[in-house]
Amino acid sequence: MGHFERDPHTGHMTTGHEWNGITELNTPVPKVIWLFLACTVIFAIGYWILMPTWPIGRTYTKGLLGDDVRHDVAQSVKQAALDRSVWSARIEKESFADIQKDPRLMDAVRETGRALFGDNCAACHGRNAQGGKGFPNLTTSSWLWGGTPEAIFQTLTVGINSAHPDTRTSQMPAFGKDGMLPRADIDKVVAFVRSLSQPNAKDLDPTKVAAGKELFAANCASCHGENATGNTEMGAPNLTDAFWIYGGDAQSIETTLWNGRQGHMPTWENRLSELDRKILALYLVDLRKADK
Amino acid sequence: MIAQLTKSERQSALVILLALAVVGLAMAAGGRHDPFGVHGAIVLLAAILGIFGVISGYYAPEPSPDRLDSYYDSPTKFGIIVAMVWAVIGMAVGDWVAWLLAYPEWTFDAAWASFGRLRPVHTSGVIFGFGGNALIATSFYVMQRTTRARLPDQLTPWFVLFGYNLFCIIAATGYLMGVTQSREYAEPEWYADIWLVIVWVTYFILYMRVLARRQEPHIYVANWYYLAFILVVAMLHIVNNLAMPISWGSAKSYSLFSGVQDAMTQWWYGHNAVAFFLTSGFLGMMYYYMPKRAGRPIYSYRMSIISFWGITFFYMWAGSHHLHYTALPQWVQSLGMTFSVMLLVPSWVSAGNALMTLNGAWHKVRDDATLRFMMVAAVFYGLTTFEGSFMAIRPVNSLSHYTDWTIGHVHAGALGWVAMITFGAIYASVPWLWKRESMYSAKLVEVHFWLALAGTVIYVFAMWNSGIIQGLMWRTYNESGTLAYSFVDSLVAMHPYYIARAVGGAFFLLGAIIGFYNILMTIRSAPSVETQNAADFPVTGPAAAPALQPGE
């Protein structure tokens, strides 16, 4: 049975079958395909001989090369640590001041710190470390807990209002919500606080500012200081400069006074090595210098 | 539609729908505090709509016995239209999530609008909604013609199509509510999986019944592929979805496997879903529509045999290449890699056989955008299978893994191969099915072709670039021996490519919408009487004596 035909275009015979008008040619498989198949099979068999491949009972063929990825990774991690130790061992040992004096160590800090910051800090503080509403700008001279490398290192280690036993703790009380000051008094304090950083603001009422000054001395100075320049021992911000975490306009300051604030910085002690935290502290100090 | 069913089929349909309504009601009651209950309500609603549908046609006269002298194509027509609806939904959601990657703030703080929930709507929408319906619809068409046997009854094909689409709807709505097994391409939960098993086994039995009734002594290659698709997908689906529900009233379940065995099972499934859903199924489609449209014989029957058995055998081993450099033992990775390399040969033999079939018909490829869709599909099939084998090589994979290169590779296959061959097949079958002389507008087919090709090329190039840049940035060390870039740096570098990808996707989507319009306008246009093919009818009588030849 079957109706064999020669295809005029290719010169090959059909297989003699037809389905709904479709026929097939009986063209032999081109030699190049067998060759191609042979090459890939030989490659596979060669790989099986050299590398771990086939399961045999409870174990597997180890391959002539004795390759073991787990071992390879452990080796390269070790080697990489050894290569880095040229500078990392010195950063681990030396004091912040000594490291800052060595331009080659500081090059390593800059290179490594940038990626460390990007992977661990940028989510809150931004890629350029300039923060955002609720997240401090780290490129300024204004630091809640001090801007020395030692202070930054400590903040990174224990965090602020974090779960660490030695955490830095600080809270702005909710003067309005908790009934410590009536609304009218809060207005006065807001006017005074604004006058500190924006003395030329036109909408400030001098009588309110004067009244606010007295209220400030009685209620706020214990943390923020008599001249409102803050206190890095308690994490109380300087209110006389241009940097505000939660905003320096009347509405934002009013909200802060009414509801209070309690920022959170995680502890990095168990997430970043001491070396990494040291690099980050130095990196941030250096970033501030580079900005100026 | 109901009028096409015999009286007893109408009764069976009612029984099935009533049973489904009871199940839906039980689900809705048992899971009233859970998304499971919402799905119960959807099942109940679908069953009630079905019951109304059957009742409305229940007293129509018995279909004429003349029907047995023609193929049963209504399910195919329905399947093609539903496939196009899913294409537009799936691709639109896909393009939306592409924009979300470039502008992640566009989620409006709504849980359902987050990337994680919308992305599986895209993947399931295009793979299962568009691809699956197109495969089922064309398989009904092809199996009848290549066996010269009509579908054995009128009810089963409708059960398969409606049942399958009910599964797709439960899957998509579940994702929006956060119902997922978190297994890629197998996200639907246990109850949807059980339902799909019922539907799929029915589909398999239907296919076997047609084959058993065949009037052609030999089984055509397209049927080998369709059958491999149906059989292996059943196997993959059942094994990968073995899970224990936490209660009968909850959507949540836990996998029977754990740890690396779970990962291996998932990627054995995942890779073979690519193999037997997105490759075998669509090769079956290509093997019918391409020679038919080109008017050329298949270049080599012998090459068909090599590629079919090569693909079927080698693919099964290759899944572990998705888990290179993971907790999976190295020997499993090596096996996956070597089989992936050998897999290139049968894949290229398939692509070569398809392109050589066009020898003698290249002038048609030039003039006919429908055939050009199929030709470009075969080229992308060859390209993608080469890329896949290449990326499965462990050192290459160490660069490409977890990057957008993988996304680019998948879309070279999904847009370039799967969608293009489907559009080609649909443009070929719509005039045949609705007895029209040609598509409503050949020019719009041409426009769709160039939009689809441009969209695919933009997409794939954007992802190649971003993937390789990403891979390099993640592994670049500075002179100090620490990582040179943070992860955020790599995201910033991706941004322009993410926009380009979304633009490419929009081209592709626009093409699909134009295609859908063209199809609907073709259906609305006047039928032509003369296009009825004299040989397009089944042979009735006892099945022909089977004759097997090598390869079958």
Commentary on this structure:
With 292 residues, chain A is mainly alpha-helical. Chain A folds into three domains: 14-60, no CATH class; 78-159 and 274-287, Orthogonal Bundle (Cytochrome Bc1 Complex, Chain D, domain 2); 183-259, Cytochrome Bc1 Complex, Chain D, domain 2, CATH 1.10.760. Helix content of chain A is 49%, strand content 5%. Chain A has eleven helices and four strands. In chain A, helix 7 packs across helix 8 (206-219). By secondary structure, chain B is mainly α. Chain B folds into two domains: 1-62; 74-537, Cytochrome c oxidase-like, subunit I domain (Cytochrome C Oxidase, Chain A, Up-down Bundle), CATH 1.20.210.10. Helix content of chain B is 71%, strand content 1%. Chain B has helices at residues 7-30, 35-56, 74-102, 115-147, 155-176, 190-212, 221-240, 259-294, 301-315, 330-357, 362-367, 369-391, 394-400, 404-433, 442-475, 487-524, and strands spanning 243-245, 253-255. In chain B, strands 1-2 form a two-stranded antiparallel sheet. In chain B, strand 1 and strand 2 form a beta hairpin. In chain B, helix 2 (35-56) runs antiparallel to helix 5, helix 7 (221-240) packs antiparallel against helix 8 (259-294) and helix 8 (259-294) runs antiparallel to helix 9 (301-315). The longest helix of chain B has 38 residues, at 487-524. Chain B is globular and about 85 Å long. The chains are: A mainly alpha (292), B mainly alpha (552). At the A-B interface, strand 1, strand 2, helix 1, helix 2 and helix 4 of A face helix 8, helix 9, helix 10 and helix 16 of B.
